[in-house]
Amino acid sequence: MVIYIMSNSETSLPANNFIRQIVREDLQAGRCQKVITRFPPEPNGYLHIGHAKSICLNFGLANEFNGVCHLRFDDTNPTKEEQEYIDAIKHDVEWLGFHWTGSMCHASDYFEQLHKWAVYLIKQGKAYVCDLSPEEARIYRGSLHEAGKNSPYRNRSIEENLDLFARMKNGEFKDGEKVLRAKIDMASPNMNLRDPILYRIRHAEHHQTGNQWCIYPSYDFTHGQSDAIEGITHSICTLEFEDHRPLYEWFLDNLPVPSKPHQYEFARLNLNYTITSKRKLKLLVDEKYVDGWDDPRMSTISGFRRRGFTAVAIRDFCERIGVGRADAIVDLGVLEFCIRENLDANAPRAMCVLKPLKVVITNYPEDKIEILELSRHPKNEQLGKRQLPFEREIYIDQNDYNENPPKGYKRLIPEGEVRLRGSYVIKAEKAIKDAQGNIVELHCSYDPKTLGKNPEGRKVKGVIHWVPAKQSIPCEVRLYDRLFKSANPEKTEEGGSFLDNINTQSLVVLKGCRAETSLAEASLEDRFQFEREGYFCLDSKDSKPEALVFNRTITLRDSWGQ
Ligand code: ATP
Ligand code: MG
């Protein structure tokens, strides 16, 4: 069953979630003295919005109950992992506002101990070296409807297993020639218990351990034991690992581990219009569909950050969607709602004209300049005021003048009037056109009695934004839309892939935009509402003091002055 969580501003905050409840009860009953959780990313890509849910849950529980949370890199796969990812993951966790306890951990810190425990299992007659090829092993494994068959190598003596495992470690065999397996039950209805692999041969350099090892422990053999070494009390993972729990417990029951953690599963975050798989996100990067992992259209935490999302909004989102055990698809609108709400309350207002059309106010004196004062925020006076010079020549947006207006158009039309935000009412007198009939300039008149006052004897409905022509700064503006054009990017015509669902209109670059000069002082942390256009921030990669580049974080929910 799929439940849609829709973008409803009334969504009440979940007062509780089942994992919180479990932790609370464990503490009350004295089953644990102090909560220790962990966030265990594999450093094979950048973190995405799904990881944010897990981060908020694990670090959030530790914060709430005065416990601690470890950041542990689950680095058992040397060939797909890189230091770049480790650095990016640390940065993202910190940016989200969380602190891990002690230095960070790596599963590779425990390779020595895990190797000892593998030898221990061999000595107990509970692990053996198997020579089946991957293909043969698959056939022996059986299926969901059919029991597996014992490997012909299952009954090797303990001595032979110890010898072969030592030779695996010493590099005597090639990749894939042999594996170490647990001896559990080839007929178990749970496939994970059918003699799972403990160690594989991989002649590959590891980013932490270099060339020390040529055998690497499997995820299943590593994860629970790492939890036990670190004294994790609540090991929280996504529902796909529910079937691994019996194996998780089998290892803890059969090894002399220092503690017995418990695994709990919750439903992963799925967002419509969004991909949350590192492998697929990596493909978008590698195949250059996007400008890197932090492309503002990416569902990565670094992408959202570059786009202008705040950590507060992402944490708020994770709290709102809650933690449950039912698979659900969350509407992207919920996340958009969270960032809008956050920015609406906090972002100073400014004006930027995206498609400038020069307006000459013919009855305004050529040498006159008036300094107008506009508040930075309509509700938050503490943000203060900004100054905007009013001159004879200004820019308005090309879309705000229309000679063939649709019904209900409240902006400027020939002979019509409109208010300039924070300024006067102007009236369109004459459009100057080029040889092709494009409007290149507009001549208007202004009513000097309308500064901060309604005009006498007539109503002017529309309000448009503007900037002075001379005293404004040029800039580039990038408008983003959803990266995928369908709600379920994975759903394609036969033979297609999620790449076929990419929205080719998801980035629109506008050059030659004009912004009010107060924006020249913007810093990377600043967010603005460009009136009528949405929320914006400087692009952290491409913006330079002499050539500003703004990213649109999100559109306004309702644009005024339609
Ligand atoms: P991906 O499928 O993107 O590769 P993963 O689960 O392999 O994700 P890990 O680095 O292993 O990525 O994940 C670290 C932690 O984040 C795990 O505990 C995992 O359960 C959790 N996690 C990953 N994706 C999601 C998601 N969509 N929603 C909630 N938690 C997630
Ligand atoms: Mg994983």
Folded structure, characterized:
By secondary structure, the chain is an alpha/beta fold. It has four domains: 1-103 and 223-267, Rossmann fold (3-Layer(aba) Sandwich); 108-217, Glutamyl-tRNA Synthetase, Domain 3 (Glutamyl-tRNA Synthetase, domain 3), CATH 3.90.800; 272-307 and 472-562, Ribosomal Protein L25, Chain P (Beta Barrel); 351-470, Ribosomal Protein L25, Chain P. It contains twelve helices and 28 strands. The chain has helices at 18-28, 49-64, 83-95, 111-123, 134-140, 158-169, 219-230, 245-254, 278-286, 301-307, 311-321, 332-346, and strands at 3-5, 36-39, 68-73, 105-106, 127-130, 179-182, 197-201, 215-217, 234-238, 262-266, 270-271, 328-330, 349-350, 352-353, 356-361, 370-375, 385-390, 393-397, 417-420, 425-433, 439-447, 463-464, 467-468, 472-480, 507-516, 528-530, 534-538, 548-554. The strands form seven sheets. Strands 13-26-27-28-24-25-14 form a seven-stranded mixed beta sheet. It has a seven-stranded mixed beta sheet with strand order 22-19-20-21-15-18-23, with no helix packed on it. A hairpin with a 3-residue loop joins strand 26 and strand 27. Helix 2 (49-64) crosses helix 11, helix 7 (219-230) crosses helix 8 (245-254) and helix 11 crosses helix 12 (332-346). The chain is elongated, with a radius of gyration of 31 Å. The model is unreliable at 7-14 and 558-562 (pLDDT under 50). Bound molecules: adenosine-5'-triphosphate and magnesium ion. Residues 40-42, 50-51, 53-54, 74, 237-238, 268-269, 276-279 line the site of adenosine-5'-triphosphate (ATP).
